[in-house]
Design a protein that fits this description.
By secondary structure, this protein is α+β, with helices and mostly antiparallel strands. The chain has three domains: about 80 residues, Integrase, DNA-binding domain (Double Stranded RNA Binding Domain), CATH 3.30.160.390; about 80 residues, DNA polymerase, domain 1, CATH 1.10.150; about 190 residues, hpI Integrase, Chain A (Orthogonal Bundle), CATH 1.10.443. It has 16 helices and seven strands. The strands form two sheets. Strands 1-2-3-4 form a four-stranded antiparallel sheet, covered by helices on one side. The chain has a three-stranded antiparallel sheet with strand order 5-6-7. Strand 2 and strand 3 form a beta hairpin. The longest helix has 20 residues. The protein is elongated and about 90 Å long. Belongs to the 'phage' integrase family. InterPro entries: CB (IPR044068), DNA_brk_join_enz (IPR011010), Integrase-like_cat_sf (IPR013762), Integrase_catalytic (IPR002104), Integrase_DNA-bd_sf (IPR038488), Integrase_DNA_bind_dom (IPR025166), Integrase_recombinase_N (IPR010998), Phage_int_M (IPR053876). It comes from Cognatishimia coralii. This is Tyrosine-type recombinase/integrase.
């Protein structure tokens, strides 16, 4: 069928038991294809090169009818494609070549690694995905996997080390595991990270925030979006891991027992954990509106937990440093707060409890450490959960934070 392809014609052309073709009467080769399923798409047929009728026809699919492919937009694209043919190019072959090239890039294999490995073997796979997509893909994502060298990785990590030493070590760890997977799957012969050492000076985590820093950070959270304000306060008051807090679900909160029950599949050691909830923690959680029937407590879309913590962390750093300087202008530490990580809140809370006289085995139980301060026969036979002691410990820590 031949006719000028317009919106009216496209809308009126109905599907049949066989494909329906409409060829435009104004632009030779521009056509509309209607599949038996009802799907409508725009195409261009042409003969590449100077072969004339002796050259085999090629078909270039412009796109499916609907935004952005209206008859007008598709017609314009058809003219562009045919102009390339006149120049001696083969748009269909070029597109296929581009697809083949994309299928060999680092970015392509990162996608496979996340879907086929990380999601099934890593509880913190979202962190792995964020690191690889944000820090690795923009720098070496377009390179062919087989062309990546040790020098490429070194330049990537060195650049990160200058601005974020701790983040650089995390990125190196995720990158090395990604390339190991590529070797295991037969995509690479060797790991370009082999023989490389992690960024120096970031392996030991021992940052503990001072009382004045804790006070400034707590105050600064009040200027963050509500969900992040509550998330950071829960992190500081409970001493639990970031991924456990951000993935908290409403069903995990037992209001009668005043407990937050974290299932084993979410914890680092695979063991279910119970965190006592104080009045203040209930007050913090009570400020959070529930989105429809979403299971997540900290969510903006009702489907996934909060993300982009790096951006909000930078904002918190600026706010807390400003507050810290203002309130300590007569002290030696009236400087911006030195670099700290979200995990440091957990260490700070634990250290603070020790200063308050909380026994180490109670703190270990609160942190859900697998071995902790108990070892040998005691670790095997002591199955007491210290729930009451943990509740008192968190209460003492909470009162200390508020007193600051």
């Amino acid at each position: 069928m031949q006719a000028k392809i317009t919106k009216t014609l496209v809308d009126k052309t109905e599907a049949s038991t066989r494909e329906v073709w409409v060829w435009d009467t104004e632009i030779r080769g521009f056509g509309l294809r209607v599949r038996p399923t009802g799907r409508k798409s725009y195409v261009v047929e042409y003969r590449p090169g100077a072969g004339g009728r002796n050259a085999p026809k090629r078909r270039y699919t412009i796109g499916t009818h609907g935004s952005p492919w209206t008859p007008t937009a598709a017609r314009k694209r058809a003219i562009e494609v045919l102009a390339e043919v006149v120049k001696g190019n083969d748009p269909s072959a070029d597109r296929q070549s581009s697809r083949n090239d994309d299928a060999e890039t680092v970015a392509h294999f990162i996608g496979h690694f996340i879907e086929r490995y990380a999601k099934h073997h890593q509880k913190s796979w979202r962190e792995t995905e964020r690191t690889l997509q944000k820090d690795v893909a923009p720098r070496i994502g377009k390179k062919r996997l087989l062309d990546v060298t040790k020098r490429d990785v070194a330049v990537l990590i060195d650049a990160m080390t200058e601005r974020a030493p701790v983040g650089a070590q995390r990125t190196f760890s995720h990158t090395r595991r990604f390339f190991n997977w590529c070797v295991e799957q037969g995509f690479l012969q060797s790991n370009p990270c082999a023989g490389m050492k992690p960024p120096a000076g970031t392996s030991v985590r021992e940052r503990v925030l001072s009382d004045s820093e804790v006070a400034a950070i707590w105050s600064a959270t009040g200027s963050l979006p509500l969900l992040w304000e509550c998330a950071f306060r829960v992190l500081l008051l409970t001493a639990q891991r970031k991924n456990e807090v951000l993935s908290m679900e409403w069903s995990e909160i037992d209001r009668n027992m005043r407990l937050w029950k974290i299932p084993g599949e979410k914890t680092k050691n695979g063991r279910a954990h119970e965190v006592p909830l104080s009045e203040l923690l209930f007050e913090v959680l009570g400020k959070i509106p529930r989105i429809g029937d979403s299971r997540y407590v900290f969510t903006t879309n009702g489907k996934t937990p909060l993300a982009s913590q790096s951006k909000i962390k930078r904002r918190l750093d600026a706010l807390s440093s400003s507050i810290h300087s203002q309130h300590n202008d007569h002290e030696e530490n009236n400087q911006p707060i030195p670099h700290w990580t979200i995990h440091d809140l957990r260490r700070t809370a634990t250290t603070g409890m020790a200063r308050l006289g909380i026994a180490p085995h109670v703190a270990d139980a609160l942190l859900n450490h697998k071995s902790g301060s108990l070892s040998g026969v005691a670790a095997v036979y002591n199955r007491y959960g210290y729930l009451d002691e943990r509740r008192r410990a968190l209460k003492m820590w909470e009162e200390h934070v508020i007193s600051l």
